[in-house]
Design a protein that fits this description.
Helix content is about 25%, strand content about 25%. The chain has about 250 residues and is an alpha/beta fold. It has one domain (about 35-245): Rossmann fold (3-Layer(aba) Sandwich), CATH 3.40.50. The strands form two sheets. A nine-stranded mixed beta sheet has the order 4-5-8-7-6-9-10-12-11, with helices on both faces. It has a three-stranded antiparallel beta sheet with strand order 1-2-3, with no helix packed on it. The chain is globular, with a radius of gyration of 17 Å. The chain starts with 14 loop residues before the first strand and ends in a 6-residue tail after the last strand. The relative contact order is 0.14. The model has no long low-confidence stretch (mean pLDDT about 95). Bound molecules: S-adenosylmethionine (SAM) and zinc ion. Zinc ion (ZN) binds near residues 8, 10, 13, 24 and 26.
Length: about 250
């Protein structure tokens, strides 16, 4: 597994570590590290529509884990089955760079990361990332970055497995995000995640928007230039998706 080499999200130059900060030799921006999280957003301006989403998740972070368990059950998927499905794929990702898009608190995925892989959790909400940091503490196989997924500070062809649990229901520009995912995924890399097909009745998780299985399929297969195979599995009103190299039948 190669070392993580973050790029400047603004100009895409390589970043140099200088003590606790990352410095861009191209545009001169200095990205600070606060409470174990590298902050790629504070030095840049955050789009207005993202500020609302960020505030919402900052304010929900303390209760988020129990909210998500309730939501999964409301979507007619028993929590045990939900977490087992995630575990099944993630524990197989040995010696990989695993990039979690909109990682939130990293619950429940954080406990399934193989010890020989590197987990990179990405989120705009510093409060969600703080919760995630308290799960991993200063584990050297984990990095947490505060970023906007539309500008992934990662080189092309660098990630083995991208994860996106319920995040595609929240990202503003899904097409742009999926293009970024395709850019950073290695040729044999995979994308695994899920979406809520209906919104919880109370829609207590307000920034959630519904996406249909068809919309998701069109985006994932339409933007993939490598002919990966899309496998889906529905559990209640949750659709799991796994985009991976097509199986060759001999
Ligand atoms: C519904 S939560 C999902 C959290 C977690 N993946 C889970 O399994 O519960 C969506 C997460 O995406 C983050 N998010 C929303 N828009 C984002 C963006 N443009 N870039 C990075 N993170 C974003 C939110 O802060 C939030 O933590
Ligand atoms: Zn730069």
């Amino acid at each position: 597994m190669q070392l993580l080499r973050p790029e400047c999200p603004r100009c895409r130059e390589k970043l140099r570590r200088n003590g606790e900060t990352l410095n861009c030799s191209g545009c001169g921006i200095i990205y600070p590290r606060n409470s174990g999280v590298i902050d790629f957003l504070t030095p840049l301006s955050l789009a207005k529509e993202l500020t609302g989403i960020c505030d919402y998740f900052d304010n929900s972070s303390a209760n988020y884990d129990s909210m998500i368990v309730t939501m999964v059950e409301e979507l007619k998927c028993p929590w045990r089955e939900y977490s087992e499905l995630i575990e099944r794929v993630v524990i197989e990702a040995r010696k990989k760079l695993i990039v979690d898009l909109g990682c939130g608190t990293s619950f429940p995925v954080g406990s399934f990361i193989p010890g020989d892989s590197h987990y990179l959790g990405l989120d705009i909400s510093s409060e969600m990332l703080k919760q995630s940091h308290s799960l991993f503490e200063d584990d050297s196989n984990t990095s947490l970055w505060r970023i906007d997924v539309e500008h992934l500070p990662l080189p092309d062809n660098s990630a083995d497995l991208c994860l996106a649990f319920f995040s595609f229901n929240v990202f503003i520009n899904l097409e742009k995000t999926i293009r970024q995912v395709n850019r950073v995924l290695k040729a044999d890399g995979e994308l695994f995640g899920n979406i809520a097909l209906t919104l919880p009745q109370e829609n207590s998780l307000q920034p959630f928007r519904s996406i249909s299985a068809q919309q998701l399929k069109e985006l994932l297969t339409g933007l993939d230039r490598l002919g990966r195979e899309l496998v889906t599995e529905r559990k209640g009103d949750i659709l799991f998706f796994h985009l991976k190299q097509a199986t060759v039948l001999l």
